[in-house]
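re: ur question from yesterday

yeah so i grabbed the chain u mentioned. its 230 aa long if i counted rite. heres the sequnce exactly as i have it in my notes:
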Amino acid sequence: YSSGEYWLVKSDTIWIQARYLPTKFTNGLAVTKILAIGGPVLKGNKLLIAPTFATWNSARVLAGFPSHFEQPDLVHLDYDSAGALVDTALDASKKHIVHAHIFDGSPEGIMVQVNRWLATKGEEYINAKITMHSRPGQDGHCGNFNGQAADDDRLAVRDRVGKTGVPQDQLLFASKTPITVADRPDINDCPTATLEAAKADCKATFGGESPKMSCLLDYCFAGKDVAVAQ
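ran it thru and got these structure tokens back, copy pasting raw so excuse formatting
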């Protein structure tokens, strides 16, 4: 829910990180802005996918729509309107989808689908879906794939992979978003069930496409009555 670069998939062979930033429509809540993919499976190469660009080792690829890009035995990219939405609540008539097939030695490979949302200039964002086999030592915001859903809870993952984002020496991005640890409640520390109730009640009370951050914080740490008071 907060800004920064975080692990989606951290493993011995494949590294996938995301940069989260807010838009003016999300009331301070962060959305996914860029996906970065690297690790031994890509043999030192690096792929970045954002709403308005994609790069392979900093060189622009997928410049047209539709378009394709391939590095033999490493990755194949298609950019088109084919495929289902990651977030089915969004407009299917505006599909711009990047399909990344990463060759990892398995018959299926690693599949990454990135839906680009481009309607408002400057406020673009992405949704992503990752399909892969589990890896030894895997962890991150996508979970550890050990078959126990309880330890993939947001708070449990934060306890394992950290609360201040990917360390600088492991970062796939060129720069790191500063993570300020303030002396005040952090929305990321709100229990999952409480936060889900907060999102529903804050939207019902104040309207808008996204709940107000101030309402969520009050709901989580001061209680519902304080949060929804007019």
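noticed a couple things. The first helix runs from residue 154 to 161. also Residues 41 and 213 are 39 Å apart (CA to CA).
anyway ttyl
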